[in-house]
Design goal:
The protein is mainly beta and 263 residues long. It is built from 3 helices and 17 strands.
Length: 263
């Protein structure tokens, strides 16, 4: 058995944020990092639930008529802010709840995501992301483990809200496979823009990365109190089974500079 990551507690501390295109260019990027072992649990929901969260000028992006929210856990690795590695803020966990939107930019559709909440163990990251990108970050103790053997790999992300640890655990294949074109998994992983509401304006930023590969998920366990973590409006997810669960390998990514949309 090969242990790739330790299941260790990371307490909140006091600089860095998060979200996605198909070129990797680090020259002028706000943030460079790797996103690795992305666990994604996807739920079909009533679009009306998300109406108040949809940023101005964007609209919900549906896949085959269905509206999705996704619980996503992953690792930030080798993180650099404006080309600089900030001590104690290089490798850390993130777990978020997100949904999918699109924006018509002068006749060209951009496919993006909106975050209900993003959780990290570093308060400085929360401050930077919320201040500059107007995101919805929160800081909680977090931990993770990556373990693999000859037959499979186990990925686990956990975060503590109050006295309760929330857990997202996957058992998956050891080898990667291609993500099928036109599949639900492609829809979930191929959104390359981030959007957030800021007053009467909408914040837009691009996240660049190559097309990802996946590990086939054999089993999963989600022990999350969605109401406690994301608010009572999402408590119904406690009793809902995901329509799919994926594990993507991830890659190097960049987060580009923000811009404001104010039509």
């Amino acid at each position: 058995m090969k242990i790739l990551g330790t299941f260790q507690k990371v307490k909140p501390t006091s600089n860095t944020p998060s979200v996605f295109h198909n070129k990797y260019d680090s020259n002028m990027s706000f943030l460079n990092a790797e996103w690795r072992k992305l666990a994604l649990a996807n739920y079909k929901v009533d679009p009306e639930i998300l109406t108040e969260y949809v940023p101005k000028y964007t609209e919900l992006d549906l896949w085959k008529g269905d509206c999705y929210v996704s619980l996503v856990g992953f690792m930030f690795l080798n993180t650099k802010l404006l080309g600089i590695k900030v001590p104690f803020h290089i490798n850390f966990e993130e777990v978020n709840l997100r949904f999918y939107v699109r924006y018509n930019d002068d006749g060209k559709w951009k496919w993006g995501v909106v975050f209900v909440k993003e959780i990290v163990p570093k308060s400085a990251i929360t401050f930077v992301a919320n201040t500059i990108y107007k995101e919805n970050y929160a800081t909680y103790p977090m931990r993770h483990s990556w373990v693999e053997n000859e037959a499979s790999r186990e990925i686990k992300y956990a975060w503590k809200v109050g006295s309760q640890w929330q857990i997202f655990h996957l058992d998956a294949a050891i080898n990667t496979s291609e993500i099928e074109e036109g599949s639900e998994c492609e829809f979930i992983t191929e959104h390359y823009w981030g959007y957030a509401q800021h007053g009467s304006k909408t914040v837009e930023y691009e996240v660049t990365h190559p097309r990802w590969k996946q590990y086939v998920v054999n089993d999963y366990k989600i022990e999350v109190d969605f109401g406690a973590v994301y608010g009572s409006k999402f408590a119904f997810l406690n009793n809902q089974t995901p329509s799919s669960v994926h594990l993507a390998e991830g890659s190097e990514i960049t987060v580009e500079s923000r811009r404001f949309i104010d039509q």
